[in-house]
Specification:
about 700 residues, alpha+beta, six-stranded antiparallel sheet, two-stranded antiparallel ribbon, flat, Phosphodiesterase, PDEase_catalytic_dom, PDEase, 3',5'-cyclic-nucleotide phosphodiesterase activity
Length: about 700
C-alpha cells in the first residue's frame, strides 16, 4: 500500500499544490478520516524559533480542496496544534477532545468555525536532513472510531514519502524560478549587447576604412584615440583582412604567424582577442576566491577567464550575432574550442605553467608547429603576448595604459584593506604607488621579456615587440632610479631637520642650569648621582678623543677611524656643507656622529650652503661636502631619531618638573661636554636613566654612533 502511495506522490513533483492535494486525498483514504490539513514551513526548521508557516492546505470529505488564508494560519485552533507539533517535533494523538485538558486552550473554536472536532492525529513531516518542513493533520475518524497506534505507525511511514515529495517539489520550483530569472537576465544582457537599428544604420552607411588608414598593421597602433564608431569599424576591418592578405599584398614583415594558422584558427584567435576580457570585474581571480564570489563557486580555476568565455558565447548566441552560423557543426565545435582555449590562456597562472614547455620547443628549433598540442601551446603564448602588448607600445601609450592598470589594482587593494581587513600585495597597495616604475621593471623582467624573446626566436619578424619592450624597460628603469634618488633626498632633508630639532632642544636645556636641591634625607643618593655624572662626562670625553672622520674617494662615505687626530671642539673650527641641489647628485648624510659633542659641533659650526668658507688641513677631516652613503644607514638613523623624539618628550616633562622646584644646587661639569644634559641626567632615577638613555642601542651594531646617546 505504501509503495503504491509513494508512486502516486512522485508522479506529482512539478507543482507543490498538486502534490499536497495528492497527499490529503491519499491520507484521507488511508486513515478513513473526514478532514485533512497540511502546513508548509517557510524554510526547514530545527529550532522552535525557526518555525513559520508559509502555506496551509485544507480538505474536508466530499468538499473542495482549498488553500488556507493567512488568518487561518495565524489564528485557527488547527494551526495552533500544528505549530505545537512543529516546535516539539513530536506526534500528537488526541482521542477525545472534550475530555482532554492538556490542549483545551488550543482547541477552543473561534469565530465562524463550526466544525465539530472529536479527535485529531497530528504528525511532523521531516526532510532528508531531519528538519521539519511541514505538518499533517487528520481529524475525526469515520464511524466514530479513534486513531489507533497502528494508524500512527502507518501515517508516520507515509509522512517519510510526503517529506521527500515536498522537498523535491520545492527544489524543482526553485530551479524553475532561477531559470526564469536567468532568462530575464539574458534578455537584459541581450538588449545591451545587441546593436540598435539606429546604430546599425549609422555604421553600415560609413565606408569601411582601409587597414593602412587605421594603421592596423603598425606595431604603434593605438586604439585609445579611436571613437566608439571607429573602434567598431576597425574590428570589422580586422575580420575583412583575414581573407585579403594576398589580394592586398600585405608586406610579410608585419608579422609572419599568419602562415602557421588555418582559417578557423585565425577566426577563433581574432574573436578571442576581442572577447577575452568581456564583463571584467576590475579584480583578479584571487579576489573572487577571497570574497567567496558566485563566479568562484562556478569555476575553481581561471575563474574570470571562464566567465569571459561564457559572455562571448552569450553574445554569439544572441539573435543576429551568430557570425558562425554558416559553419558546419564540426567546424563550429572546432572554432568554439579554439576560442575557449585562447581566452583561458590569458590567465597568467596558465602562462607560467606552460612557458617552460614552450621554451623547450623553441630551444629544440621547432619549425612546423603542426602537432595539435604544440600548436595549441603556440596559440596560448600568442594570446598572452597580445594581452600584455601595451608593454611594447610607444612610451606615451605605455605610460597611459600602465597607470590605468595600476589604478584598477589600487582599487582592489583599497577594498581588501577596508572591507576584508587584509594588507594588499605591494602591486595593489596605493601607499606604494610611487614604486610603480620599479614594479613595472619587475613585471617586464618576469613575464614580458622572456615571452617576446622566445616568440622572436620563433619568428624574427616579431622582433619589434621585443625591441619595444626593452625600450620601455629602460624608461621605467630610469624613472625607478630617479624615484630612489628623490626618496634619498627626502630622507636627507628629514634627517637635517631632526638635527635642528636636537639643537633647539639642547639650547632649551642649557637654560636650565641648576638641578633641584635634594631632600635632606637623601644626600647620599645625591653624591652617588654626582659621581655617576662625572663618570658619564669622562666617558664622553674619551669617546670624543677616539673617533674622527674621513671622506673616502668617489663614494664620499663618512667613515670612522681610530688612532687619528680628534675633531677640534673649539669655536674656531669651521667646516663647509654644500647646499642640497635638485640635481642628479643628491647628498646623503651618514648617521655616524659618535658623540654628543661632535653632533653639536657639526650642526652648529658647519654653516648650511656656505660653499665659500675655507678650511685648513686640521679641520679638513670635519668638512662635509657632498657626503653620500647607502640607504641602510639612513634607515638606521631615522629609527633612532623616532626613538629620540620619545626621549625628548620625557626630558621636556622632566625639565618642567625641575623648573617647579623652589631651589637648586649647582653641579660643575667638564667644559668639553654639554652641561645641562648631564645635569638633567643626574636627576633621573637610576632605573629610569638607564632605560631612557640606552634602550635604543641593543639592536644596532655600534653602541655610541647613535644620536640618541646625546640623552
Amino acid at each position: 500500500l505504501l509503495v503504491t502511495l509513494a508512486r502516486n506522490l512522485f508522479r506529482e513533483q512539478s507543482d507543490l499544490e498538486h502534490l499536497i492535494r495528492k497527499i490529503t486525498v491519499e491520507s484521507q483514504g488511508l486513515l478513513q478520516c473526514t478532514r485533512c490539513c497540511v502546513y508548509i514551513l517557510e524554510s526547514p526548521a530545527s529550532k522552535p524559533e525557526e518555525v513559520r508557516f508559509s502555506k496551509g492546505f485544507d480538505m474536508i470529505y466530499e468538499q473542495e480542496f482549498k488553500v488556507t488564508t493567512n488568518d487561518f494560519l495565524d489564528n485557527s485552533r488547527y494551526a495552533k496544534i500544528a505549530y505545537h507539533v512543529a516546535t516539539s517535533m513530536e506526534t500528537v494523538n488526541l482521542s477525545d477532545i472534550g475530555n482532554d485538558a492538556t490542549f483545551t486552550n488550543l482547541l477552543t473554536a473561534q469565530g465562524d468555525d463550526n466544525f465539530i472536532l472529536k479527535n485529531i492525529l497530528c504528525i511532523p513531516i521531516f526532510d532528508k536532513d531531519g528538519k521539519v518542513i511541514g505538518v499533517a493533520q487528520m481529524m475525526n475518524k469515520i464511524n466514530g472510531r479513534v486513531f489507533t497506534d497502528e494508524d500512527v505507525a502507518i501515517i508516520e511511514a507515509f509522512s517519510i514519502f510526503c517529506g521527500l515529495g515536498i522537498n523535491n517539489t520545492q527544489m524543482y520550483e526553485n530551479v524553475m524560478r532561477l531559470t526564469c530569472k536567468q532568462k530575464v537576465a539574458f534578455e537584459v544582457l541581450s538588449y545591451h549587447v545587441t546593436a540598435s537599428d539606429e546604430d546599425l544604420s549609422r555604421i553600415t552607411s560609413v565606408q569601411l576604412p582601409d587597414a593602412n588608414q587605421l594603421r592596423l598593421y603598425s606595431w604603434d597602433f593605438n586604439d585609445m584615440i579611436l571613437t566608439d564608431d571607429e573602434t567598431v569599424l576597425a574590428s570589422v576591418r580586422m575580420f575583412a583582412e583575414l581573407d585579403l592578405m594576398k589580394k592586398l599584398q600585405i608586406p610579410h614583415d608585419t608579422g609572419g604567424m599568419n602562415v602557421c594558422m588555418n582559417d578557423l584558427e585565425r577566426l577563433g584567435l581574432l574573436v578571442a582577442c576581442l572577447s577575452h576580457d568581456l564583463d571584467h570585474r576590475g579584480t583578479n581571480n584571487a579576489f573572487q576566491a577571497k570574497v567567496d564570489a558566485p563566479l568562484a563557486k562556478l569555476y575553481s580555476t581561471s575563474t574570470l577567464e571562464h566567465h569571459h568565455f561564457d559572455q562571448c558565447i552569450m553574445i554569439v548566441n544572441s539573435e543576429g550575432n551568430n557570425i558562425f552560423q554558416s559553419l558546419s557543426a564540426d567546424d563550429y565545435k572546432t572554432v568554439i574550442k579554439y576560442i575557449e582555449s585562447a581566452i583561458l590562456s590569458t590567465d597568467l597562472a596558465l602562462y607560467f605553467r606552460k612557458r617552460g614547455d614552450f621554451q623547450k620547443l623553441v630551444e629544440n628549433n621547432e619549425e612546423h608547429w603542426t602537432d595539435p598540442m604544440k600548436k595549441e601551446l603556440l596559440r596560448g603564448m600568442m594570446m598572452t603576448a597580445c594581452d600584455v602588448a601595451a608593454i611594447c607600445k610607444p612610451w606615451e601609450i605605455q605610460q597611459v595604459v600602465a597607470k590605468l592598470v595600476a589604478s584598477e589594482f589600487f582599487q582592489q587593494g583599497d577594498i581588501e584593506r577596508s572591507q576584508l581587513h587584509v594588507e594588499p600585495i605591494p602591486m595593489m597597495d596605493r601607499a606604494k604607488k610611487d614604486e610603480l616604475p620599479k614594479m613595472q621593471v619587475g613585471f617586464i623582467d618576469s613575464i614580458c621579456l622572456p615571452l617576446y624573446k622566445t616568440l622572436t626566436d620563433v619568428d624574427p619578424s616579431l622582433s619589434p615587440l621585443y625591441d619595444g619592450c626593452k625600450k620601455n624597460r629602460a624608461n621605467w628603469e630610469k624613472l625607478a632610479q630617479e624615484h630612489e634618488k628623490l626618496k634619498r633626498h627626502k630622507n636627507v632633508v628629514i634627517y637635517l631637520r631632526d638635527l635642528e630639532v636636537i639643537e633647539n632642544l639642547t639650547k632649551m636645556l642649557e637654560q636650565t642650569n641648576k638641578p633641584p636641591i635634594p631632600p635632606v634625607n637623601n644626600l647620599n643618593e645625591t653624591k652617588r648621582n654626582e659621581t655617576k655624572l662625572k663618570n658619564i662626562n669622562e666617558t664622553i670625553n674619551q669617546n670624543s678623543n677616539s673617533i674622527s672622520y674621513k671622506i673616502v674617494n668617489d663614494t664620499t662615505t663618512l667613515a670612522k677611524t681610530t688612532n687619528t687626530a680628534v675633531v677640534p671642539t673649539t669655536t674656531t673650527t669651521t667646516a663647509t656643507m654644500a647646499s642640497i641641489e635638485n640635481t642628479e647628485q643628491h647628498i646623503k648624510i651618514l648617521p655616524a656622529i659618535a658623540t654628543p659633542t661632535n653632533c653639536l659641533l657639526l650642526l652648529k659650526e658647519v654653516p648650511m650652503g656656505d660653499s665659500s668658507t675655507t678650511v685648513d688641513s686640521t679641520t679638513q677631516m670635519a668638512n662635509i661636502h657632498l657626503i653620500q652613503v647607502n640607504k641602510q644607514h639612513i634607515d638606521i638613523i631615522q629609527t633612532q631619531i623616532n626613538d629620540l623624539r620619545h626621549d625628548v618628550d620625557d626630558l621636556r616633562a622632566h625639565v618642567q618638573k625641575i623648573e617647579q622646584q623652589k631651589s637648586a644646587s649647582t653641579v660643575v661639569l667638564p667644559p668639553s661636554t654639554i652641561p645641562t644634559i648631564g645635569a638633567v641626567a643626574s636627576t633621573i632615577p637610576e632605573s629610569t636613566s638607564h632605560q631612557t638613555s640606552f634602550n635604543h642601542h641593543h639592536h644596532h651594531h655600534h653602541s655610541r654612533s647613535s644620536v640618541c646617546v646625546l640623552f
